[in-house]
Write the structure tokens for this entry.
Amino acid sequence: MTRARKHPYGRKHLVIPDTQVKPGVPTEHLEWIGRYAAEKKPDVIVHLGDHWDMPSLSSYDKNTRAAEGRRYSEDIQAGNDAMDLLMAPLYREYNRSGWWPEMHFLIGNHEQRIERHSNAHPELHGKVGYQDFNLWDHYWKVHDFLVPVVIDGVAYSHYWANPMTGKPYGGAAHTRLKNLGFSFTMGHQQVKDIAERFLPNGRVHRGLVVGACYQHDEDYKGPQGNRHWRGVIVKHEVKDGDYNLMEVSLDFLRRRYS
């Protein structure tokens, strides 16, 4: 694949927050995102993880009525089909113009349910796993759960964990930015929280927490918890951890591409 051309003032990143695909939820927005990417031609696409929701392996619903009828293969197929929707416009644009972005997928805690389930049931080792995802078929570079990837000075991870507890850092983005001390972007939480710090040496650190890119509501969040922002993020002129941020909501993508 031909890589997108670098810009002398920094590259353009398209960030896709958690898409949380599972059987029965709408997925046409993945095609909207793919068409938007093909039109805007970012240099880098980063998916923050939790594309495969994997409700069949959820420990929270185990032995409840909500868990009845869930199947691993159906969860995998739903996510794979949605990934096909996302990627189809990119292939069309590649065939037309030769453009192809650098692409990174960060394994999230929902995908990691597969690994935890396999470890708890050794007889499944080699029979279920990340190899069931169609990520490699679509030329994604896959990064394991919580392994940071630094791109143009921005550190990406599904979330950032407190090294003393292993649990996600809490608090607002400003607090996390202060604790981490570098530019970061993460998903995992259904919020859009932005922070920036201007340092005396002229550098800028930016923190971004953005974890929702799906149309459906989650039952566990209740009638009030689903009122959060959903969409993708474009970072222009990304260099040394600094960038100009642009929000692109799913409502905008729906109006433009549906």
